[in-house]
Amino acid sequence: MEALAHGHLPLSALRTCQKEHRCHHVGSIHFLTSPVPSSLKFSAPIKYRSGIIRMQEKYELKQMKDMAAAKKRWDSLIRDGKVKVLTPREAGYAIQLSNKTLLDVRPSMERKKAWVKGSTWIPIFDVDTSLELGILSRKATNFLLGGWWSGVPSLSYNKQFLSNVEEKFAKDTDLIVACQKGLRSIAACEVLYNAGYNNIFWVQGGLEAAEEEDLEREGPQPFKFAGIGGLSEFLGWTDQQRDAAAKEGWGYRLTFSARLVGVVLAADALFIGAQKVGQYIQELRTH
């Protein structure tokens, strides 16, 4: 669960997982939404950076073990038919023709960008707003390790998830469970099945795999863009935006090219300004 709260798998686990055919049942979860350009990589002090690296190595090892165990359980649920699998298009048909309920378990920053009309939102993980020292430290680490680029915040498990679902839905309700990429929703399916829900349908690949005609959307952005953020979204360097640029043409690309030029110019201006301030302070000291 902790790995899901951070919204990513370690790269080493991802490579291992991609070798197995069943990995496609839970979708591909990347450490970053898109690669960080070398020119934009964050530079931290050496001692602090080495401490972060050691912390990340320990965390990745724990993630790999947790995800391997979880994946076995999820595969078993699907293989035994305890959780039925739907594509986004099949989910759309089921909602329209049989009046099934779509349970959206995404965190708030994804939900507010796009949602399925008539869906019920109960996040299994959401943005952590706690100001506890340990939580703040985790947020800082998450930001330094790529959150600034991907826009993925530190998330925490919603302890009220199951009770909130039970308040709204009887145990015999047909529930179509969806998230952005499919990973958190299969985790939610496991929680619901263990609580006695027997008519559970999982949207494979999540809403990001949906075409606009598959599900009736509300919200300001397409489903595919709901999971991106940070500087990568601002510069248009995510896979989703590249695909859109290929369809939209040069006008779409020029917008983000102009933003990139603006970022470079701003960085240069800050660098030159810092040099000038440093020289001015040095002159004051010499007088």
From TrEMBL:
It comes from the Eukaryota. It comes from Nicotiana tabacum. This is Rhodanese-like domain-containing protein 11, chloroplastic isoform X1. Signal peptide: none annotated. Residues 96-219 form the Rhodanese domain. PANTHER family: RHODANESE-LIKE DOMAIN-CONTAINING PROTEIN 11, CHLOROPLASTIC. Pfam families: Rhodanese.
